[in-house]
Amino acid sequence: MLSRFNVFTKITLLILLLLIPVISLYTYSNRESVNVIESEIQRSTTNRLSFFASQVEATIYQLALYGVSIGQDSSIQEYQRPDYAGMPYERVKLSVAILEKMNLYNAASKWHSEITLYFPRVREVLSTDYYSRLEYDETEFEAPFPQAWSYDGDSFTWHATEPVSAMSNPKSARLITKISFPTNHLTALLDQNKVNNSGDPFLFSPEHGTIRNSSANESLVGQLSEQLKAPTLAQTGGFRTKLNDTEYYVSYIQSNALGWYYVDFVPMQQILSPITSSRNLFYMSITFLLVMSFAVVFALYRSVQLPLLQLVRGTKRLSAGDFSVRLDHSERGEFSVLFGRFNIMAQRIQELIENVYEEQLRRREATLKQLQSQINPHFLYNCLFYIKNMARMKNEEAVVAMSLNLGEYYRYITRSENDLATVREEVRMVTNYLKIQSLRLERMRFTIDMPDELLSVTVPRLTLQPIIENAIIHGLEPQAEDGEISVRGQLIDGVYTITVEDSGVGMSDDALERLQRNLTKPLDGDMGCGTWNVHQRMTFLFGEDAGLRYSHAESGGIRVTLTWRRETN
């Protein structure tokens, strides 16, 4: 059965048979080592973090409990009595007694904290901070108080109200207690926790950053903080990570009071001694097997790997559009036959693509010629009908002007075989056209504002005239009052824009949306070909982003915007 396999399959099976015992040994030893390391590190770091967390939580709970119980003090209750307003001496005496009680609490507490009492009834403030003069500001109590400690950059703050139900509406409270402590207390505990272990503890919050010990490794803590921001952390846990080419085990516990995480990380190398012997055994085994497998790998690389790499590179070049790629392999074998078939396939694909591309170019050129030719009879018919109507009305001046304009028009489209014209030439043509229409419609006015940087840009011939013609026929003629047409051009962020607006009767949103959709549909008998041709020619020449856009004008009519990008011009 083995004789039916080719050389590549035999060598692959041999390598797999050699690697199976090595992989099994390594997997077993690595799994046991990792289990020992993770259990040891997780147990020690978790115990340290738990002890540190219990210290912080106990102190914070004591501060919060004092904030709730202080409102029941008789001195504070008496200080809020309205009849004390006329007894300043008694109020000062009572306030001194209250401050003494708060200072006694600070002296008995592990942490020195700042305690501030707000009395909404009498609009006064008492605080243990003697260096700041606090004024009662009711705007501070418009929003509900959070049910947790808040962090403001260098201290943690907690609010309590009396009654407790006033937390959601602080303005209704009889007493508001604000307790805050600086972060240097936490820094001191972190320093103390770091003295007797090899970790580097710190506090982490995804929103606020870190609070570090005094001798923290800034680089490692910063890198670890970025990793802690990525996942959604659980209440407690641990993971392995690599920082500065050194593997660490990270443990964390979330604080119930602060919402921050207590984090500690230690290098795994300190507890790698249990796996040293198994690792040495693995290295000795893999070295022996590598020496034995060198000849096999070399033969596999030369006979299989090199031809495969050449075939992959040729396939990538072929998929990228380089159909001139050919593979050269002088040795006989399976790959020489494959390379020969690949070369034949690439040659046939190249010939087919070139034929298709030439056919597309001819079809594109024919389509442009067709679109250009469709618009000329459309404009001619409108001009001839206009001359006929003006002749019947004995309006010789309009007949002469239209005839001259018609002559200039055909001189304009027949003087060159180029289907493109500059914006300056287009503006000159539509100026003549608008003058003729203003003679026919004495109540029509027009303005043209075209910047100099746009005049030398090329566009398809007869681009503006069909747009202006539609504005006059469908916008201005149906209304009885005076009308105006405005033509403006501009260049913004590499995009050319020509806008034609009229103050005509306008149209509904549905009609405007239907008119926009018709620009991309095939031409039929129910659609006008003038603006459709303009949109199609702009799309063919300048890409799918170019063409016409319809919208409502501020004057009540229709705004037609012609856009195309500068780099496609």
Automatic annotation (TrEMBL):
Its EC number is 2.7.13.3. The keyword Transferase applies. Signal peptide: none annotated. GO terms for molecular function: phosphorelay sensor kinase activity. SUPFAM superfamilies: ATPase domain of HSP90 chaperone/DNA topoisomerase II/histidine kinase, HAMP domain-like. It is found in: Cell membrane. Gene3D superfamilies: HAMP domain in histidine kinase, Histidine kinase-like ATPase, C-terminal domain, PAS domain. It is an enzyme of class 2 (transferase). It is a multi-pass membrane protein. Keywords: Cell membrane, Kinase, Membrane, Phosphoprotein, Transferase, Transmembrane, Transmembrane helix. One of its GO terms (cellular component) is plasma membrane. Pfam families: HAMP, HATPase_c, His_kinase. It comes from the Bacteria. Residues 302-354 form the HAMP domain. The chain crosses the membrane at residues 281-301. PANTHER family: SENSOR HISTIDINE KINASE YPDA (PTHR34220). This is Two-component system sensor histidine kinase YesM.
